[in-house]
Amino acid sequence: TITIVFSAIEIDAYDHLGRLQRYSETKSELAGSLVTQTERKDIKYNSLIGQMVSYKEDVTRTESSPVHTDRTDMEYNSAGQLIYYRDAITYPLIGSTDLKTFIIFGATDLNDDGTLKGSKTPAVYDKFGRLKEYNEAKRELDKTDITKLNVKALTHRLNISYDDSTGQMLGYTEITDREGQALQNTARDSLQ
């Protein structure tokens, strides 16, 4: 059984247009032995069309290090589907406190500072609104000394197929180029 409690009761939880600016969510699984607490705040919107463009999120899970994510630069296609964003992820309290991870969804490369290198490569969706193909650029680094850790991984997932009667993913091809490792080309099928 999974129990989810959503809360947006703070005085500033909504902006003057009724859009969420902040909320918290508690998810309890496995008879309460696994609890995930999420707080999303500073949610910003495009003032012309109302789509979310950025937010900050703190996630704490039972037996795991807290994770802080700053998501920015969110972009959408003409159907309102997310095609691009940039995440900066840190572990502020315990665990890998020197680790910083940048992820750019909709890109084939990124710089050491986590900014886009080259041009954007927007995600592609099928006629049912399911992801069909996307690129992701990721960089993990030691935020105190990049000579200790600074590794880039570029992922291209394509040929994503689905069971049209259930919507479940059936398979995909994934090409991952991670610095310091051999190029990986993985084909998954029959993921039922």
Overall pLDDT, averaged?
A: 93
Task: Outline the biggest β-sheet.
Answer: 12 strands, antiparallel
DSSP strand content: over 45%
C-alpha geometry: globular
Distance between the termini: 22 Å
Number of helices: 0
Using only C-alpha atoms, the radius of gyration works out to 19 Å
Which residues sit in consecutive blocks of at least 5 with pLDDT less than 50?
A: none
Tell how many strands the DSSP assignment holds: 12
Q: What's the order of the H and E elements?
A: EEEEEEEEEEEE
* Class from secondary-structure proportions: mainly beta
Structure description:
- This protein is an all-beta fold and 192 residues long.
- The chain has no helices and twelve strands.
- Strands 1, 2, 3, 4, 5, 6, 7, 8, 9, 10, 11 and 12 form a twelve-stranded antiparallel β-sheet that branches.
- The radius of gyration is 19 Å and the shape is globular.
- Helix content is 0%, strand content 53%.
